[in-house]
């Protein structure tokens, strides 16, 4: 679900613009549980509490294997909009990829 309305050259450019558009909560993918952790508090959210609004992919400048995917997500239940950055590389975990697959896309 790439967003044709916006195009970014870098991950930092995308993050800055999305934050200006209200995606201000930072989420981490939990390594121990099937949930997302809200960095501004102690909130743990399951994938069914989110909707993916936009997705952007970025490849590393020197190594195409250093790929990052930026998800702009929202939760109507918790009145939150935020960002999840999923980095692929040597340390990318299987659990994280499976958790991201459980997220539903906007309009589904």
Descriptive notes:
- It is a single chain.
- This protein is α/β, with parallel strands linked by helices and 108 residues long.
- The protein has one domain (11-105).
- Helices cover 17% and strands 35% of the residues.
- It is built from 2 helices and 7 strands, in the order H-E-E-E-E-E-E-H-E.
- It has helices at residues 11-20, 94-101; strands at residues 25-29, 36-38, 44-45, 51-59, 67-75, 80-87, 104-105.
- Strands 3-2-1-6-5-4-7 form a 7-stranded mixed sheet, with helices on both faces.
- A hairpin with a 7-residue loop joins strand 4 and strand 5 (67-75).
- The mean pLDDT is 79.
Summarize the structure.
This protein has 108 residues and is α/β, with parallel strands linked by helices. The chain has helices at 11-20, 94-101, and strands spanning 25-29, 36-38, 44-45, 51-59, 67-75, 80-87, 104-105.
Topology:
Blueprint: H1 11-20, E1 25-29, E2 36-38, E3 44-45, E4 51-59, E5 67-75, E6 80-87, H2 94-101, E7 104-105
Radius of gyration: 13 Å
Average pLDDT number: 79
Q: Could you tell me the strand content as a percent range?
A: 35-45%
Number of strands: 7
Unreliable parts: none
Question: Per the principal axes of the C-alpha atoms, what is the gross shape?
Answer: globular
Task: Tell me the count of domains.
Answer: 1
Keywords:
108 residues, alpha/beta, 2 helices, 7 strands, Phosphoribosylpyrophosphate synthetase
